[in-house]
Amino acid sequence: MQQKGWSIFFGAILLGAFLLFAVAPFVGWWLPANVSTFGPDVDRLFYIILGFTGFFFVLTGAILVYAMYRFAWRANTKSHYVEGNHRLEIAWTVVPAIILLFIAVSQISTWDTIKYYASMPNPDLVMQVTARQWDWSMRYADKPQPDNARAWAEVPAIDDIYLPSELHCWKGANVRIFLKTQDVLHSFFSPQLRLKQDALPGKTIPVWFNATDANTSYNAKTGKWDIDKNKRWEIACAELCGGGHYRMQGMIYVHENKEDYLKWLDGAKEAARSRQPEKKPPAVAKN
Amino acid sequence: MSVSHSHSTEAHAHPELGFLRKYIFSEDHKVIGIQFLFSGLIFFLIGGTLALLVRLQIGFPQGSIPFIGRWFPLSWGDRMSPDFYAMIFSMHATIMIFFVIIPLLTGAFGNFCIPLMIGARDMAFPKLNMMSYWFMWPAFAIILCSFFVDGGAAGSGWTSYPLLASATMPAGQGFHSPASPHSGLGQICWLVALVFVGISSMMGSVNYMTTIINLRAPGMTLFRMPLTVWSMFITAILQSMALPVLTVALILQLLDKTINTTFFLPPGGMSFGNQHTGPGGGQTLLWQHLFWFYSHPAVYIMILPAMGMVSDIICTFARKHLFGYKPMVLAMAGIAGLGFIVWGHHMFQSGMDPRLGTGFMLATIMIALPSAVKTFNWLATLWGANIQYTTAMLNALAFVAMFVIGGLSGIFMAATPVDVFIHDTYFIVAHLHYVLFMSSVFGIFAGIYYWYPKMFGRTMNETWGKVHFALTFLFSNCTFYPMHIIGVAGHPRRYYDSTLYHFLDNVQSLNVFMTISALLLGVTQIIFLLNFVWSLFRGTKVGANPWHSNTLEWAAPSPPPHGNFLETPIVRRGPYEYGNPAIEDDYLPQTSPQPSGVPVAAH
Hints:
The complex is a heterodimer of chains A (about 290) and B (about 600). Chain A is of the alpha+beta class. Chain A has 2 domains: about 1-75 and about 85-115, no CATH class; about 120-275, Immunoglobulin-like (Sandwich). In chain A, about 40% of the residues lie in helices and about 20% in strands. Chain A contains 5 helices and 12 strands. Chain A has helices spanning about 1-25, 40-70, 85-115, 150-155, 260-275; strands at about 125-130, 135-140, 160-165, 165-170, 175-180, 185-190, 195-200, 205-210, 215-220, 225, 235, 250-255. In chain A, strand 6 (about 185-190) and strand 7 form a beta hairpin. In chain A, helix 1 runs antiparallel to helix 2 (about 40-70) and helix 2 (about 40-70) packs antiparallel against helix 3. The N and C termini of chain A lie far apart (about 85 Å). Chain B has about 600 residues and is mainly α. Chain B is built from 18 helices and 2 strands. Chain B has helices at about 20-25, 30-60, 70, 80-120, 125-135, 135-145, 185-215, 225-260, 285-300, 305-320, 325-340, 355-365, 370-380, 390-415, 415-420, 425-455, 460-490, 510-540, and strands at about 270, 275. In chain B, strands 1-2 form a two-stranded antiparallel ribbon. In chain B, helix 2 (about 30-60) runs parallel beside helix 5 (about 125-135). Classes of the chains: A alpha+beta (about 290), B mainly alpha (about 600). At the A-B interface, helix 1, helix 2, helix 3, strand 7 and strand 11 of A face helix 4, strand 1, helix 11, helix 12 and helix 13 of B.
């Protein structure tokens, strides 16, 4: 009996592992609420893989534990003498191969949607984000769609607005971010947007998203734009960038509509002007 | 090295050697293997201690650790500084990968097992073998000293991505880095140490390949070799093909850091606050390609030998013929072959052309196939077996159970859209620990309990071995399994303090749970340590073949003398003749004469 106890021990631990995954979504240990247009596709693929892997986890775990129980040591007996079985080998090669191929192929279109440069939708709002040790510098043009966006991403214009770590957009807008870094590798990560992209030294990388929900509203009392406390969508850095890696925190403000965004943009311009009363052009580095 | 060889069975063909030649500068593959084992276990302690410090910080990010300020001047009083934290997780991974798992699997078990299991007197190049161990010592010294250099040891992760790792001051302004205090001398030490480790591994793998090809005993055809030997053979091939690329990458970064070349610095140079590096001309991504071209095959270098060892241990204690010997060999070869074309899956979000990601994804998902084949064959081997639950067997079974989890979680990351979310989250940390700790380390434990009698002529205590196994299995699952969950919640890795983030509020309780489990896991290893040392002197003495195993090493005395076999073994069959109904015993060693009435095996 002591021999068979080991199968129960293994079974208990594997069952615990299974139960943790079964319980986790109901106690809030799960995917953050999705707010991007391609997020449902990402989540669907996640659940497809979870389904297949969960099935094989239970199957192999059950076989292992049962075999450990059933075939525990008995004196004066011999194991079943068999060297292999070609049919079985072919079966458990071909079936997983088909499943894996299905999983692999089903990813391609979503990956294409999220990342392929040629597939990105025409932007309603263009901005440029520069990561640096340790914050995000967000650069906005004075209008949502600057002329020749690609060139604007490389060469700042005189009336650009810079905000540290605040990303503003509006619900339903196709947002195009030109992602750069000033120093080391960083990675732009928004869990709720299901979006992650490294910022690569010396490169400008286009990133896009479209938020399906808003979290920002104008507070007439304070004259500020407030975020719904239950919808704090943070930006995190996902690529080690030195000691302050953990505190490269940003915040995403999704306005209800374009009008709200433009209203906010006007206010931001005003604030920027009040910070620079003489309207001098930004100092050009001597060299 | 206090190895308690019993002196009753000294070498016949070899002259008596002095202590220094016999135990220190030894050319005997068994002594070299045991040397790798001892140094690997010592570094295991160091790397494990670092891991516990990492866990303490994650579990209690605002907590203080008594005396840490006195011991580590880089910390913030009684708290770790974020830079200090970056240093300890970087060094934890570096030590575990390059100084523990690879040296234990290939250095210790490769050295000890290969000649014994193919019936050779020693390695093909004994002096080269000795050098492969002693080239580790500069690495040991440099990596340990690096903790005490100006700025502390390397802190850019074990991957040492530029520019965090490689950025350096303009020429003539010293070795400090504008990117991080740890990227100065500490990073240079890291690079030099790894070059030495690489040279050591290269010497080992050349030796293993030559030995396996040339020195097999009469009758030991390739397809009569135990899977341990096959796995070491395939690993050696992988290593010899991948290592030069890593060595080149290390030297390129070393040049960037010391004589201000710009292999990894982009043309415009980069700004760190007010400091500018000056113009470059290179490519940051180049490092990632070179690094992962080695380090992805290295992932298989860290698992294949454990797979081989576990296969042999399972057959021995299941008292059953291995199910599907040739499919198992082919699966390992398949993993090794595909392993060379999947490195890009570490770089899906890196900014390389996303179309490349699609190709790498297809190859990566298909590499799950040979792993699945291996798992099914292990399960089929257990089906109809007669299982002896020794400590070695329990660890081997844990390997199988846990490798399933590590293998299945890999599919999530291979799928590029899902990887967008889970890349660089704790899901990855969970996955890699299920492969490296839960699989490789359980494989290593299984190997130690299994071959300990052959190494030292005594067995380890079985009762304490089982206590150690049960607690390790329980606590390691409690430590690593919830990492999947917090990864799904989006918890990024390498965070000094995750409580700053609203979306991680829910999972901090799991972090505390994992930290406590990790501390218990660490304490549990004291049982292993005491059992290991105690058994060196007081373990039960055993004969040549205590487990009634078939493979050749058990035909040699325990411990085998210099020269291994008293007479050259003649191999008459494959290694897995367990439970053959035609004979009385339930095992038939590879060297035994053919019993009457049993047909000679075809292979």
